[in-house]
Specification:
304 residues, 9 helices
Length: 304
Amino acid sequence: MQLKPINQQVVAVIGASSGIGRNAALQFASRGAKVVVAARSQPGLESLVEEIRGMGGEATAVVADVTVFAQVKAIADKAIEVFGRLDTWVHNAAVEMYAAFEVTTPEEFKRIIDVNLMGQVYGAMAALPHLKREGRGALIHVTSVEAKRSLPLQTAYAASKHGVDGFLESLRVELMHQKLAISVTEIMPAGINTPLFNKARTKLGVKPQPTPPIYDPSLVAKAIVEAAENPKREVVVGDAGKVILLAQRISPSLVDAYMERTGFDSQYTNEPKSESAPDNLFDPISDYDKIKGDFSDQERSWSL
């Protein structure tokens, strides 16, 4: 399957105001792609568009909540309105909560499923008609290593990522059966240093952290950009994630025992944070429209 060079593409990046999505949008723009960026945070999108235009790139923004299909469809429509086509759809938007299952409310669990799973479904529904019209293109969905192996204290998040994994497997085969030159790529990051951990709801009594080792967001963004030009099925970003998934295939019960021993404390920081602290589960919060989180002193800029 032959996809367009990046500098000939129109790319929509969903969940672009911070973290991996923001870095990916900048990488696409730096290589000459025209970019449509979307998220709930209007200030984050405005600063991103300004940054892209400042480096000579072309970008436009759409404020959207991915749980509302009409708003997701408006992102794809904006790409057509402004740039005339859509070549690649990158769906990265997600929310997170750290809590034991027994203290998770039905409303919280449903919200995470709505954003992380149904948002990805809506994204594919909105993008596919335009990719089909072009005759080729890429759907790139960012999930997590937890799409294959769950961590404790993240039941809803893990369920949502497993759901996306199953959805993409089925969709990929349907597109193959239709002989369509549309690639479906799942990007599965390990622990990444993004602002997600500042924005996540927590019932741990402390601010959560990614399970070490912790990786630079640019590694994930690079994998996304590569998949937009060179079709891939699945990409795990972070060698620790690859080790865990290999162990999961060999002995799930052994990984269960490992998670029971290390999977709890490894997600705790020493920084107190109350359950009532601001989070972005239902509404966006300000001051976190940046690429990196608070763990740069532990961050790896490389991965085997």
